Amino acid sequence: MTPRGLTLVLVAALAVAWPWLPEFTITLLCYIGLYSMVAAGLVMLTGVGGMTSFGQAAFVGVGAYATAWVCTSPDLAAVLGGAIGPVGLPWLGLLLGLLLAAVVAWALGAITLKLSGHYLPLCTIAWGLSIYFLFGNLELLGGQTGTGGLPPLVLGGVSLAEPRALGPVIWATLLLGLWALHNLLDSREGRAIRALKGGRVMAESMGVDTAAYRVKIFVLAALLAALSGWFYAHLQRFVNPTPFNLNIGIEYLFMAVVGGAGHLWGAVLGAALVTLLKSRLQDVLPQLLGSSGNFEVIAFGLLMLVVLHRFADGMWPTLAAFSHRFLRPARKAELRDSQPLPNPQLPPAGEVLLRTNEASRRFGGLVAVNAVDLDVVAGEVHALIGPNGAGKSTFFNMVSGVIDPSAGVVSLMGKDMTGQPARAYAALGLGRTFQHVRLLGQRSVLDNVALGAHRRGRRGWLASMLRLDRVEEGALLAHARRQIERCGLTPHVDAPAGSLSLGKQRAIEIARALAGQPSLLLLDEPAAGLRHLEKVALAKLLAQLRAEGLGILVVEHDMEFVMNLADRITVLEFGTVIARGTPAQVQADPRVLDAYLGGADEPLEAAA
Ligand code: ADP
Ligand code: MG
User: How far apart are CA 109 and CA 115, in angstroms?
Assistant: First the structure.
């Protein structure tokens, strides 16, 4: 049986048993379903996107209170004048709740998500606290006592007043949501979301607008929480502020983390574990201790500590590994390359792709790069060399949009790039690798390389969730596979990138850059850490790319590698160009010899 088969069997078994389950179990299952929705949003946000929110309970509250207000407010009833009856009002409430949650999440996200570090978690704590007190203090929402008398949901003429009737709708919604999220993660957009964890610079260099993606996932998680709140309100038919306070927000985070924040099913597992555990503790502890009190909070906290210590990635990976013993792994449907990506026209050989004009960069009093003029044309390998600390990496970052020049101009394909982000460079056909390899180590080689083709696709979140992106996805993956083959990585296509040698990882970075079909390739120390044969293979690949018409700028330490490969060389020392020309000219230049012999770690003779 495959995992999907097992899921279907379990769902079917639950459906068959449903009418005979005791009332208490039904109620618990309803809550587990509701909590799973919130936790699934947190999995997307925390485990996949690398952001933390303590404020999800407040978004649940927004969903619950929105519908409570819509359904019970006499003012609104007067305005509507009976145009919408008690059957329609909850749906209006759902609309309002989702809208409010989206607006708040978008605003919070827009304010904090561009800032790195702890701003978002802190902001969600502030938001969680303030909305809780707002619920408690607004007379309009019933203050601390809350609002009662909500109508039950009615679907197709059937009243869903009882948990036994509402539960299947909750679970169907949850399963549908999980399916959509699973599809989203298994798409071009999913790769972009995962790339957020690989760091802003890497993701932006692949053409991903990281700020926009972060806001979008934050809004998505808030919508899931609000949806859960809406169901909650109509399950309880009553709302008060307590279930939406900061404690509960932290509990939701627990669910995601305990279950396994990197896995969608971890959300369901975590919600089930936490809910069952709490309900058991509330029964057992007072009997054990002989007195009542909130002991379960303490026991719960201690248990969480143990679980997190034992299962750092949550329980789901352990459960999944165990299930592999008797489950057949799901075979991924091989997508067809029915509509190959168009090949963009490369600029003619000799055309200037990149040019810097007196580009300088200061760090405080230090001039790291001093008025450097350099150009790279199509069909050449241009090497930038120099001793350690010469300013090579700083120059590299300047011409790839990671940092701005303090003075001077960088132009790409004839366009002045002042103030442009790295993804604008990618859009103009610049592909790059990193001196310190930046891959998603747990993802497959194919996944990593396909991220490089991000800009070649168009399909958005909704299309991905609904699996309407399969033709495009097939083309993207086939394109990625071709780059993998080009770089000699085909035997490793499904291996996790982090499991390969450094040399192979550097090759993955080149394949990823090529997947964007760049006309200019920037390589920061591509030969560092490579074995001799790997270097030979790399040189061969670069020579082939040059023959195909790419322009390549390579920063490199390895002299032999550079001298055999480069058409032109520029030598930097203390941020200033001290020589430029063909390998032969540069090798003969006395100033270069000086720079390399005076305290250099790699004398030129080694290469000559
Ligand atoms: P290279 O790559 O040639 O070894 P770098 O470009 O990394 O040299 O560094 C050039 C100089 O700029 C060094 O003196 C380095 O200490 C300094 N430098 C680089 N980045 C920064 C930074 N972010 N802040 C301050 N100084 C920096
Ligand atoms: Mg460097």
Answer: 10
Of 541, 545, 575, 547, give the one whose Cα is nearest residue 561: 541
Interatomic CA distance for residues 42 and 56, integer angstroms:
8
Nearest CA to ligand 1 atom 12: 368
Q: Which ligand is nearest to the CA of 524?
A: 2
Give the residue whose CA is nearest to atom 21 of ligand 1: 363
Mean pLDDT by 10 residues, the chain (608 residues): 87 93 94 97 91 92 95 86 83 96 92 74 88 88 85 89 93 96 94 89 91 93 97 94 90 89 91 89 77 73 80 83 81 75 82 92 92 93 91 92 92 90 92 92 92 90 91 90 91 92 91 93 90 90 92 88 91 92 88 68 47
Which single residue is written with the structure tokens 């279907």? 8
Q: Is 415 helix (H, G, I), strand (E, B) or coil?
A: strand
CA distance 2 to 326: 9
Contact 556, 381 (CB under 8 A): no
Q: Which atom of ligand 1 is nearest to the CA of 387?
A: 3
Which amino acid makes up residue 235?
L
Q: Please give the C-alpha separations between residue 199 and each of 46, 193, 196, 205, 261, in angstroms, as whole numbers.
A: 14, 11, 6, 10, 18
CB neighbour list of residue 189: distance below 8 Å, 6 or more residues apart: 459, 460, 461, 464
As given in the structure block, the two tokens for residue 72 are 């019970």
Strands (E), 231-296: 238-239
Report the alpha-carbon distance of residue 595 to residue 245 in Å, rounded: 64
